[in-house]
Amino acid sequence: MTTVSATRAAQPTALAARSGEPTLREGAKGAAVTQLQNLLRNKGYNIAADGDFGPKTEAAVKKFQSSKGLVADGIVGPKTWAALKGGAVSNPGTPAGGKQVTAYVQGRPSTITVVPVGNGKYLRADAAKNFKAMQAAASRAGVNLTANSGFRSMEEQKVLYQKYLNGTGNLAAKPGYSNHQNGISMDIGNVGGYNTKAYNWLKNNASKYGFQNDVRGEFWHWTYKGGGVA
Ligand SMILES: [Zn+2]
């Protein structure tokens, strides 16, 4: 018989089994290191999530391993990954698939929880909840809304800003100053223009979910302003 507690207990194992993370040690660089650093930050370790596995990250890994009764060798293998992720699953308030990231508002960093909204994109948890509700309502009206862009890291915004400066990309806010970096703005796919069924549906309904089309000339760019169903 399956009980609620048995189902919950099984989750960390399932997550670890499908994760397939690489073994990491000092000197490693890249997205997996950033993921590791964000998981450590979730546990309260004060390190940068810069994708560079240096001495501070190694020290945090060793402390974390000690706290979990693992061999404190500073090498992040399957057991350490599982321990890091297992804790995240049972952490109340982090929705399924959610992760903590460094957000920026007016140039100032803070940590927020973002959750997936499809296409590999993320929004801040309250904005995501409203986008999903809005997407479901739109779908019932025959309008297919997708996420073309959501939360952006500092690195992602820097790339877009440079393209804008070079004249090869859309208008992009200065890094640190985009609402995409706060996880509340998204670029919605399939809108197609201002005079479309999708745009008119959004114009009439998005405010119920707290979203506004707040950049002139960008029919695709919608920002969650609060309220809605969250
Ligand atoms: Zn945008």
TrEMBL record:
Q: Where is this region: Disordered?
A: 1-23
**Cross-referenced InterPro entries:** DD-CPase-like (IPR052179), Peptidoglycan-bd-like (IPR002477), PGBD-like_sf (IPR036365), PGBDSf (IPR036366), VanY-like_core_dom (IPR003709), VanY/YodJ_core_dom (IPR058193), Zn_M74/Hedgehog-like (IPR009045)
All residue ranges annotated as the D-alanyl-D-alanine carboxypeptidase-like core domain in the record: 121-226
Cite the entry's keywords alphabetically: Carboxypeptidase, Hydrolase, Protease
Residues covered by the Peptidoglycan binding-like domain: 30-84
Q: Would the keyword Hydrolase turn up in this protein's UniProt record?
A: yes
Which portions of this protein are annotated as coiled-coil regions? none
Segments of skewed composition (Low complexity):
1-18
Top-rank lineage group of the source organism: Bacteria
Instruction: List, alphabetically, the SUPFAM superfamilies matched.
Output: Hedgehog/DD-peptidase, PGBD-like
Q: Which GO terms describe its molecular function?
A: carboxypeptidase activity
Name under which the protein is recorded: D-alanyl-D-alanine carboxypeptidase family protein
Q: Tell me which species this is from.
A: Hyalangium rubrum
